[in-house]
Design brief:
Blueprint (H helix, E strand, L loop, with lengths): L11 E4 L6 H11 L3 E5 L11 E5 L6 H9 L5 E3 L3 H9 L3 E3 L5 E2 L4 H16 L12 H18 L1
Helix pairs in contact: 1-5, 3-4
Amino acid sequence: MNNKIIKKTVSILVDADACPVKKEIIKVSERYNLEVIFISNGGIRPYPSPLVKIVIVTEEPDAADTWIVNNLVARDVVITNDIPLAAECVKLGAKVIKTNGQSIDQDTIGIAVASRNLAQSLRETGEIRGYNAPYSPRDRSQFLRTLDLTIQKSI
């Protein structure tokens, strides 16, 4: 007999270290009455909502990524800027959104991985410096729009 619990709703799993859109995620989760889980190795303040869960993992490299991959269910929404994590989540059937509002799916993960690897190689050789453009109000607005549309399609 299979005792696995079947989730009937979508959860939002957040790679929470350095995530600039926590408030926006909570706002959208409350609008749709969806659980949101912030996964971090520390430094996250509690939020007074039964919808918000906080998971603190060890400080080992990729501990939050491992927790997300091991606990997501197909159709969950994962918020991360980590492309290798995004690739694993897409493979498992999750919807992935970067904090700038860019959706990552089966059609776009290949180019996202290639772009990440190229940028990493160029940084290592000194051809480019820096990592990410500053986070803008436009990014925040695009993120909210993408998260809302993704959830509407998922529930």
